[in-house]
Amino acid sequence: MSTHPAPPAGPARRAALVAAPFAVGALATSIAFLLLRDSFPDKVATHFTLGGAADGYSSPITTLGQYALLFVIEAVGTMAAGFSSRSALTTVKSLAVFASGLSAATAYALIAAMRAVSDSDGHDTQLPLYQLPVAIAVGAAASAVVWLVSRRRA
């Protein structure tokens, strides 16, 4: 076991480590979309009120594009925040932990929304309110796992 600290990761490695969780989240969401697409109505609910009622709709293919774009925006935002800060809080490890939690929570919330759409008749889509705290818990669990794994490797 070496007592020398690991050299700082280069920009390409940092970007890959931050983008990887978002790519995995987008892949999981895309697979769920493909599995559920036959049960979708012509217009898929893509936005919900705080009460859980659907108030925004798109075609299924547009919905998939919006979901992918959401992961891209999150990845770019996380990378921009990480690269623009010189703080110790934005180490590659902390960025990977944050990215894992955010992408897991997002993927869960999007899959839950797709499931709600597939269970509805297309007009009365309702996303149960408990889904938001569950998405946060899934994100926190994913972050904890990545943090624990990264500690063991250090």
Distance N to C terminus: 10 Å
The helix tally amounts to 4
Return Rg in Å: 18 Å
Given as residue ranges, the uncertain stretches (5+ residues, pLDDT < 50) are none
SS class: mainly alpha
**Main sheet strand line-up:** 1-2
Number of strands: 2
Described by strand count, sense and barrel closure, the largest sheet is: 2 strands, antiparallel
H and E string: HEEHHH
Query: What would you call the shape?
Result: elongated
Average the pLDDT over all residues and give the rounded result.
86
Quick recap of the structure?
The protein is mainly alpha-helical and 154 residues long. Helix content is 66%, strand content 6%.
Describe it.
This protein is mainly alpha-helical and 154 residues long. 66% of the residues lie in helices and 6% in strands. The protein has 4 helices and 2 strands. A two-stranded antiparallel ribbon has the order 1-2. Strand 1 and strand 2 form a beta hairpin. Helix 2 packs antiparallel against helix 3 and helix 3 packs antiparallel against helix 4. The longest helix is centred in the last third of the chain and has 28 residues. The model has no long low-confidence stretch (mean pLDDT 86).
